[in-house]
Amino acid sequence: MFSCNNTNSYKIAGELSNLSGSALYVVFESPNQVLIDTIECNEKGQFTVFNEQLDDLQSITIYYNERERHITVYPEIGKPIQIKGDAHYPQVVQIKGGRINDKLSQFKKKAMPALKEITDLQQNNPENRSLTTEETMQLPNLNVKIRQAVQDFISKNPKEEASAVLISEYFTSPDEIEQKEDMLQLLSPELNDYYLVKNLRKEIAKAKTTKAGSKAPDFQVTNVFGQTFSLDSFANNYFILTFTAQWCEMCQPEAMMLNNLASTFSKDTLEILLISLDDEPEKIREMIRQDSIQWNYVADSVGQAIQLFETYNVKSIPKCFLIDGNGTILLNTANAEELKQMVDDLLK
Fold first, then answer.
1. What is the mean pLDDT of the chain?
2. How does pLDDT run across 248-264, given as a tens digit for each residue?
3. pTM of the predicted model, to two decimals?
4. Residue range 1-88, CATH number
5. In angstroms, rounded to a whole number, what is the distance separating the alpha carbons of residues 237 and 240?
6. DSSP letter assigned to residue 20
7. Residues 251-260: contacts with CB within 8 Å, 24+ apart?
8. Class of domain 220-347 as given by CATH
């Protein structure tokens, strides 16, 4: 016989309006394992999450709307948590219960207008229409405003784990090494052993391996025609390593100005290697045969592209690395104009 002791369990009572679908996917993360569960919510968007299997949970993430959106909870054993908000605005959903959640809810409440506006522009865009010029210009301003709010919060709460959470949520790009380090400098040394702080320091160290001025990580890949390449294959030439996918419009050679560069400079001067997430090499071979430019294309057979994405710390596409003949990274960018300008400056 046994009984449930609430002081050794985690319990969440939630209510989300405007949910599409009743299925929620819950991921429980502890230092040594991850558990995944599926729960149902009622017609009012009410649900309950309960776990007593793990006594060292670090976070509980609830995915909804076909896993397209999520909210993350930072539990404390024995302390019930309440979630309430609009499913359309995950960044401002109020999560109460436990010190970290309460502090984060304070931040969200203060930053709510800007967070809602960003969500409306990025996610709640009716029929995925193109943003107007004014809206496109407004997004960077809103992001600056939110980051300033994060910095203000950290400055006032340097000993709070919630400050580390905000850094991990709002400084996500591997290109933001300096900004992320600046934010970590604001934290109290008391947080050095907090798992998120350790993770952030690891991310920074890894990001530094692929920043401009660093020695490019070595690799070995096989293109769709069976030829094997490593970093040494491009020694003595300028070399563009591009991360792409056939289904990504922004990643196409035309969009990234790779067509222009490949037509302007010979392979004796500039070589281009495309690393694609696509796993159908025959389709890529057919595409290359029909193109006037004979691209050097690597597909994701046996996971080689995914492995290189990880090695080069690529979190989104497109991404291009311009590397010189000595294997030094000169540019790490997703900006086609920036890439073309640097190549032109170097080779023309």
1. 90
2. 888 888 989 999 999 99
3. 0.80
4. 2.60.40.1120
5. 10
6. S
7. 251/317, 251/318, 253/293, 253/295, 255/318, 255/336, 256/318, 256/320, 256/336, 256/339, 257/336, 257/337, 257/339, 257/340, 259/293, 260/340
8. alpha beta
